[in-house]
Amino acid sequence: MSNLIWVQKWYLFNCDGDWEHGYGVRIDTLDNPGWSVKINLNGTQAEGLTTEPIQRKTTDTDWVHCSISNKEFQGAGGPENLDEILQIFRALVEAAGK
């Protein structure tokens, strides 16, 4: 299953009539260029998830920075790294059994 499909299923699983109104998943673009991903973990099975910051930079356009802070997964990356950001989130959730 692709990472995007997996995130869609994770999102749907957490939609309970309340969570999706105050929290959720945001995917946006950056002007450097790149991607920004914010996934609120509040009220989900992954709420207690933690990780050390993950940073990788190969070139000015091939990089990722991911972390979890205040019950929110935050990922950013180059213009071709959206799938990698989603894969990092997926791997963290799956490794924690969440």
Description:
This protein has 98 residues and is of the alpha+beta class. It has one domain. It contains three helices and five strands, in the order ααβββββα. The chain has helices at residues 3-14, 19-22, 82-95; strands at residues 25-30, 34-40, 54-57, 63-69, 72-77. The chain has a five-stranded antiparallel sheet with strand order 1-2-5-4-3, with helices on one face. The longest helix has 14 residues, at 82-95. The radius of gyration is 13 Å and the shape is globular. The chain starts with a helix and ends with a helix. The mean pLDDT is 95.
Brief overview:
It contains three helices and five strands.
How is the topology of this model organized?
Elements: H1 3-14, H2 19-22, E1 25-30, E2 34-40, E3 54-57, E4 63-69, E5 72-77, H3 82-95
Antiparallel strand pairs: 1-2, 2-5, 3-4, 4-5
Helix pairs in contact: 1-3
Order of helices and strands: HHEEEEEH
> What structural class should be given to the helix and strand makeup?
alpha+beta
Strand percentage lies at 25-35%
Strand order of the largest sheet: 1-2-5-4-3
Rounded Rg = 13 Å
| Global morphology | globular
Question: What are the salient characteristics of this protein?
Answer:
98 residues, alpha+beta, 31% helix, single chain, five-stranded antiparallel β-sheet
